[in-house]
Design brief:
The chain is an alpha/beta fold. Among the domains are: 71 residues, Translation initiation factor 3 (IF-3), N-terminal domain (Ubiquitin-like (UB roll)), CATH 3.10.20; 83 residues, Translation Initiation Factor IF3, CATH 3.30.110. The chain is built from six helices and eight strands, in the order αββαββαβαβαββα. Strands 2-1-4-3 form a four-stranded mixed beta sheet. The protein has a four-stranded mixed beta sheet with strand order 5-6-8-7, covered by helices on one side. The N terminus is likely disordered.
Length: 223
C-alpha cells in the first residue's frame, strides 16, 4: 500500500513521492496517463491511496508540479531493468584498419573493400590507410583519389569522418558506420526474437493433410 511504501529507503536522487510532495496544488496525471488537471495535493493523495498506488512527482519544476499516480516500486524496478539492458547492449566502437598500396591490384582492393564493409555493418569505424613507398610519397593526389573511391564504394555502410590526411609516410582516412554497435546489437536481438516467434508459430500450426486419392472407378460390366 502507499502508506507502507513511504517507509522504504529514500535516496536524494529519487523523485518525491506521497507525503514528501509538499506543495499546495499539483497537476495530476492518472494511472493510465489520463490528464486529471490541477487539484489540491490532499485530493491527489486521496486518489492515490484509494487506488492503492503512489503519488509520484514527475516534473517538479513545472508550475504547478506534475504528479502521477503509479506503482512506484514497479516503476523503479522497470527503470533499473531498462538501464541494465542498455548497459548490456552497449558496446564500444572499435577502430578497424584496412591497408592499401598505391598500386593495388583489383582483386586485392575488392577483398579489402568487403572486409571494410563487414566492419562497418558490425558498427565499427574503419581507418583506411595507404602505405607510400619510395617516390610514391611525391604523388599524394593519387592516394587521395584512391581513398575517395574507397569512400564512395562503402557509402552504403558508412560516411567519411575524417578526410584523407598525411601521417608520416602514410595517408589515412576514417569512415564511421551509419549505425553504432548498440543499434546493430538491438537490431540483431530484434531479428533473433522475430525468427524465434516465426519458428514457434510454425511449430504450433498443424500441417494440412493432403486429400485422399480418389478410388479407382469400378470396371464396367461386360456386355
Amino acid at each position: 500500500m502507499a502508506s507502507t511504501r513511504t517507509t522504504e529507503e529514500f535516496r536524494i536522487s529519487d523523485p518525491r513521492t506521497n507525503d514528501r510532495i509538499r506543495v499546495p496544488e499539483v497537476r495530476l496525471v492518472g494511472p493510465n496517463g489520463e490528464q486529471v488537471g490541477v487539484v489540491r495535493i490532499e485530493a491527489a493523495l486521496r486518489l492515490a491511496q484509494e487506488a492503492d498506488l503512489d503519488l509520484v512527482e514527475v516534473a517538479p519544476n513545472s508550475k504547478p508540479p506534475v504528479v502521477k499516480i503509479m506503482d512506484y516500486g514497479k516503476f523503479k524496478y522497470e527503470t533499473a531493468q531498462k538501464a541494465k539492458e542498455a548497459r548490456r547492449n552497449q558496446a564500444n566502437t572499435v577502430l578497424k584498419e584496412v591497408r592499401f598500396r598505391l598500386k593495388i591490384e583489383a582483386h586485392d582492393y575488392t577483398t579489402k573493400l568487403k572486409r571494410a564493409e563487414g566492419f562497418l555493418q558490425a558498427g565499427d569505424k574503419v581507418k583506411a590507410m595507404i602505405l607510400f613507398r619510395g617516390r610514391e610519397q611525391s604523388r599524394p593526389e593519387q592516394g587521395v583519389r584512391l581513398l575517395r573511391k574507397f569512400a564512395e564504394d562503402v557509402a552504403e555502410f558508412g560516411t567519411v569522418e575524417s578526410n584523407p590526411t598525411i601521417d608520416g609516410r602514410n595517408m589515412v582516412m576514417v569512415i564511421a558506420p551509419h549505425k553504432n554497435k548498440s543499434e546493430v546489437k538491438t537490431e540483431q536481438n530484434a531479428q533473433r526474437a522475430a525468427n524465434k516467434e516465426a519458428a514457434r508459430q510454425a511449430r504450433s500450426t498443424p500441417g494440412e493433410t493432403a486429400p485422399a486419392a480418389a478410388a479407382p472407378a469400378a470396371d464396367a460390366p461386360a456386355s
